[in-house]
Design brief:
This protein is α/β, with parallel strands linked by helices. About 35% of the residues lie in helices and about 15% in strands.
Length: about 375
């Protein structure tokens, strides 16, 4: 008998649960030659919870913690799909532990892809979801109609705070709703964080006074944990209404805390998420960007659009949009933000494809015109805003 079978003092056996009270995770399994799909799924259920061989886990612990493997269906060849349901005991109400349960240890294996996530109401109560959501973000931007919003990025890194602020002014004169920092802008000497925030916010406000507009500036919140709370307090004191965050750099629970405690709108950047997007291993984009980012409190989520300089398909992009906007318990819908080399001249096509509950993030094709004010006005006209 393994020692772990003797170490159960204080453990309470799980009472029978309905499937609706458990965390359900969909997986696509790609089996190597000689690998059994059922055995592979069972390995996930144990590895993601108790991290022990099955023979070392007593029935009592297994019932209380280990996941239950559902039906296995062959997708084709050596690929299968299944759902494993886990008890809430496996994660409590810890979002970092939830991420670990989804893909922690098994990320170090192969042929395992997370394809879906369903949470019981008890788990969702502990997650804030978007504070503002689609309706709230429209309100912050002064847009009362159900029309798309626009976004532009400040770049490149290396410009001074004053130069970035001038770009803000021109974008705001052109009517862009959200003018965000590039995610590479942090606290570099060329444009220190506090100086950049003050200058950029001030110039957007100046443009708003001149045009009667409601453009917003969203600074990138640097990922320095020691300064996280101070940075949040600072941007609020300046009057900024929202920030750009990179959940995979800052940390999922840091984003959850910001959504819960701050009144700021959160625009999520997908930096580092591409490490999960493989054909037979990882977490599919619609789960990571469309569900996990939404549940931790992001009001809008940037993703690399099809046809740009990245590799997501239109089908995947549409799935991300659906997951961000669909009804999901008590969690508000969030804006999808297609980006990544989008051409302003084709924004009408994407509006027809994705609908009005979308924020269109355009960068390079506006800069390439040489006139940000007029290019921004043209983009606003293309999305039906002028």
């Amino acid at each position: 008998m393994c020692l772990c079978q003797l170490s159960e003092i204080g453990m309470v056996a799980r009472t029978p649960e309905s499937e609706s009270s458990r965390i359900r995770v969909g997986y696509r399994l790609t089996c190597a030659p000689g690998e059994d799909a059922r055995r592979k799924a069972q390995d996930i259920a144990f590895e993601q919870t108790v991290e022990l061989p099955e023979e070392c886990v007593s029935p009592r612990i297994r019932d209380a913690v280990v996941g239950d493997v559902g039906r296995l269906d062959r997708v084709g060849g050596t690929t299968w799909k299944t759902t494993i349901s886990y008890p809430l005991l496996a994660v409590g109400r810890d979002v970092n532990q939830l991420a670990s349960l989804l893909f922690g240890n098994v990320s170090l294996k192969s042929g395992i892809q997370v394809t879906d996530l369903e949470l019981p109401l008890e788990a969702m109560i502990g997650l804030p979801g978007p504070r503002h959501g689609i309706a709230g973000l429209r309100s912050l931007c002064g847009v009362t109609r159900r029309v798309p919003l626009s976004c532009a990025a400040l770049k490149p890194v290396g410009l001074s705070a004053a130069e970035l602020a001038q770009l803000c002014y021109e974008f705001a004169l052109g009517g862009i709703d959200i003018i965000k920092d590039d995610h590479g802008l942090a606290n570099q000497h060329s444009a220190p964080f506090k100086e950049r925030v003050e200058r950029c916010h001030s110039m957007v406000q100046r443009a708003n006074r001149e045009t009667g507009g409601h453009s917003l500036y969203f600074p990138n919140l640097p990922s320095r944990w020691s300064q996280f709370d101070d940075d949040l307090a600072f941007v609020r004191s300046v009057g900024v209404k929202g920030i750009l965050v990179s959940p995979m750099l800052i940390g999922l629970d840091a984003i959850r805390c910001a959504a819960e405690k701050a009144s700021l709108a959160l625009l999520a950047h997908p930096a580092l998420t591409g490490a999960f997007f493989h054909s037979d291993h990882g977490i599919v984009p619609e789960v990571l960007l469309g569900k996990l980012f939404r549940m931790i409190g992001c009001d809008a989520v940037i993703y690399p659009n099809a046809g740009g300089r990245f590799v997501l398909t239109e089908e995947t992009c549409s799935a991300i949009n659906t997951r961000l906007r669909e009804r999901w318990g008590t969690i508000k819908p969030a804006f999808p933000v297609p980006a990544g080399g989008m051409d302003a001249r084709r924004v009408g096509h994407w509006l027809e494809r994705y609908g009005p509950d979308t924020i269109f993030l355009i960068g390079g094709s506006l800069y390439s015109t040489g006139d940000l004010v007029e290019a921004s006005k043209s983009m606003m006209k293309a999305i039906g805003r002028r």
